[in-house]
Task: inverse folding
């Protein structure tokens, strides 16, 4: 067995995503292990081993009641909060059906910022039971607090109302006492569910003294294992078991109890009730942690804005946005620095914006750039101190990559040179950069990337030669406005409908392989940028100019041009074709591929053990596909040669190395394996014939 290659040790990790899940405390892990090894009996068995198991079950329930202040009502152990939510919704809707009242057109009320488990459970059981009710989201204000007037106006027609104690994205805490007053004034018998997942361990609860009917909890949100939780059910509240068959949990939830998980809750409850314990920090300490982290974040990111008010929030959550920096860039560089945070909710990591912040009415940029940093009540001071230092390291890497502008005169030497492909979804924008000359041209700018391009120009002091498009645009378009902003860097003031400078030379000799007339050219460093056509033009980038060699077409920026005969008239055999839209993440194509005559190589599929062996060979080339700032924070220290080639620079890498690296062993690597998979497939299409990629990315290598 080949020893795995480790990128960074696990104990170097700074985990600040506790609202998603928490690590398991050692004493809780011990309780689980002890129960699995020694107290493995069935709590329903009457022999001594079963009785020992029963004691853990009954005592855990007793302690849990003390923790949540439930001397009355029921505490039912479940698989987690999602099951508790399902059970509560089913119980409420079944009670409505059994009452004989007409449920058609009634309301299922839920907070607009609720965890998605709630509205999805409401919709599911509403359909299954054919209740015919209408799901209606309760609006929130800019602080995330529920609209009490809306509740008062709609509650009398509701079959259930669901709110949450603490929001998982923002940490905003609802005033349950005020809510109860409104709810019971306007709907004294309406079942009320409160999602209490994020409040456990962060505040006092006295549920039996309230009229809350259902309160789901989850163990893994407070240092317990996954797969265990519990549900509080108020005395005499309507109840329908979600799982039936066996009668366990006093008939509330059948199935042999998860005793190791319940033993974990037993230990957790003991800690929460122990006045002398020092595992969970007091609120004053947690507030100090939050202030320390916020100071570090504001120093690192001067344009940071908080997305919630501290006066309404628990102290363990920070939700913020940095103007002009997408959340994905911050998350990736934090991850490279071994800081774990989330973009909004971990349950919606593929969503590019926060529905919670949208519901609060915050600006689009804040919703699209939101970062959630959350710690737990057992977090140590050393972790906070280390996090603050790493935050500055991550911000420094973002400044080096020109994603953050410094308020000092730092001079960062950019690694960008040649053609750079920027993307927003499937749409592509291209930068033609000459590093030595500090010159640049922009082709087909995208509105969402305009600020990033501005930062790059400002950071690197580029002289922008042109901002052009492959389609006509108006004076209010992104291209026109960007050209106006960057004109001080060298754009000509006189431009036509596609942004082409009118001073561009009309007598440039056409490059070889181009059989049509060109409309002049621009010099970008040591290359010529030609235009072909006027209404829907293409742009051709020549090879470097030399006194002896005739210029060829190295790159063609063809917009949405698809006519093969038109393309064939301007492309050479080796020309890299760059399109405006790239749904398949092709990065680039060539004329042979467009004609269907290409013969790509096959991706090399090898076992992880062999990949680790490759990583130890000096002749192997490891292509780190992460962005420059990620690579800077965590450079790969390997025996193999390492090159940092983000997807933004892959087309230039292909141009530079398709002849000398075609048969060299190559492993593509990124954080998770997604970007490296794209890079590996692209390289095989361009004749790199010994390419593999690490499917689990650095996450697998670091395991």
Result:
């Amino acid at each position: 067995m080949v020893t795995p290659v480790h990128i960074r040790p696990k104990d170097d990790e700074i985990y600040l995503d506790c609202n998603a899940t928490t690590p398991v405390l050692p004493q809780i892990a011990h309780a689980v292990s002890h129960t699995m090894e020694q107290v493995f009996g069935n709590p329903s068995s009457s022999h001594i081993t079963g009785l020992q198991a029963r004691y853990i079950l009954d005592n855990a329930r007793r302690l849990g009641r003390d923790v949540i202040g439930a001397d009355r009502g029921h505490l039912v152990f479940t698989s987690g909060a999602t099951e508790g939510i399902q059970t509560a919704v089913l119980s409420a809707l079944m009670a409505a059906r059994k009452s004989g009242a007409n449920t058609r057109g009634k309301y299922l009320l839920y907070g607009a910022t609720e965890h998605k488990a709630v509205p999805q459970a409401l919709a599911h059981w509403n359909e299954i039971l054919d209740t015919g009710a209408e799901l209606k989201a309760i609006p929130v204000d800019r602080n995330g607090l529920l609209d009490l007037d809306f509740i008062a106006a709609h509650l009398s027609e509701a079959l259930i109302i669901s709110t949450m104690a603490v929001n998982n994205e923002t940490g905003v805490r609802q005033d349950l006492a005020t809510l109860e007053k409104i709810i019971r004034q306007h709907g004294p018998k309406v079942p009320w569910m409160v999602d209490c997942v994020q409040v456990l361990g962060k505040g006092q609860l006295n549920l039996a003294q309230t009229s809350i009917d259902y309160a789901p909890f989850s163990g893994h949100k407070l240092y317990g294992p996954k797969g265990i939780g519990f549900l509080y059910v108020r005395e005499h509240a309507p109840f329908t078991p979600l799982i039936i068959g066996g009668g366990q949990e006093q008939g509330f939830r059948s199935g042999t109890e998860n005793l190791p998980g319940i033993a974990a809750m037993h230990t957790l409850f003991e800690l929460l009730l122990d006045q002398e314990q020092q595992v969970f920090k007091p609120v004053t300490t947690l507030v100090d942690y939050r202030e320390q982290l916020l100071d570090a974040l504001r120093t690192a990111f001067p344009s940071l804005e908080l997305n919630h008010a501290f006066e309404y929030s628990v102290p363990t959550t920070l939700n913020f946005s940095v103007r002009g920096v997408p959340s994905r860039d911050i998350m990736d560089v934090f991850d490279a620095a071994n800081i774990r945070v989330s973009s909004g909710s971990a349950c919606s990591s593929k969503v590019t914006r926060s529905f919670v912040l949208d519901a609060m009415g915050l600006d689009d940029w804040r919703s699209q750039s939101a970062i959630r940093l959350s710690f737990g009540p057992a977090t140590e001071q050393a972790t906070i101190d280390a996090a603050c230092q790493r935050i500055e390291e991550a911000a420094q890497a973002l400044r080096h990559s020109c994603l953050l502008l410094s308020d000092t005169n730092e001079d960062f030497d950019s690694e960008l040179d040649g053609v750079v492909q920027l993307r927003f979804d499937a749409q592509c924008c291209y930068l033609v950069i000459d590093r030595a000359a500090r010159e640049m041209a922009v082709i087909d700018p995208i509105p969402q990337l305009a600020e990033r391009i501005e930062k790059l120009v400002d950071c690197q002091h580029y002289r922008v030669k042109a901002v052009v498009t492959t389609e006509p645009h108006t004076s209010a378009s992104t291209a026109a406005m960007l050209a106006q902003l960057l004109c001080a860097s060298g754009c000509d003031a006189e431009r036509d409908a596609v942004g082409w400078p009118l001073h561009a030379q009309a007598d440039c000799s056409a490059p070889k392989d181009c059989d049509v007339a060109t409309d002049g050219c621009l010099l970008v460093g040591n290359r010529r940028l030609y235009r072909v056509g006027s209404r829907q033009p293409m742009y051709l980038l020549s090879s470097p100019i030399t006194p002896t060699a005739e210029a060829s077409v190295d790159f063609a920026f063809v917009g949405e041009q698809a006519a093969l005969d038109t393309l064939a008239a301007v492309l050479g055999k080796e020309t890299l074709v760059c399109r405006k839209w790239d749904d398949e993440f092709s990065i680039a194509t060539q004329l042979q591929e467009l004609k269907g005559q290409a013969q790509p190589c096959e991706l090399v599929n090898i076992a992880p053990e062999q990949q680790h062996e490759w990583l130890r060979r000096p002749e192997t080339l490891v292509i780190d596909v992460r962005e420059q700032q990620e690579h800077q924070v965590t450079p790969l220290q390997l025996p193999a040669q390492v090159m940092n080639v983000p997807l933004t620079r892959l087309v230039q890498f292909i141009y530079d190395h398709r002849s000398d690296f075609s048969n060299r062993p190559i492993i593509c690597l990124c954080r998770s394996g997604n970007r490296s998979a794209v890079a590996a497939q692209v390289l095989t299409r361009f004749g790199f014939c010994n390419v593999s990629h690490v499917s689990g990315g650095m996450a697998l290598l670091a395991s």
In short: Residues 56 and 400 are 56 Å apart (CA to CA). The longest strand covers residues 427-434. The radius of gyration is 30 Å.
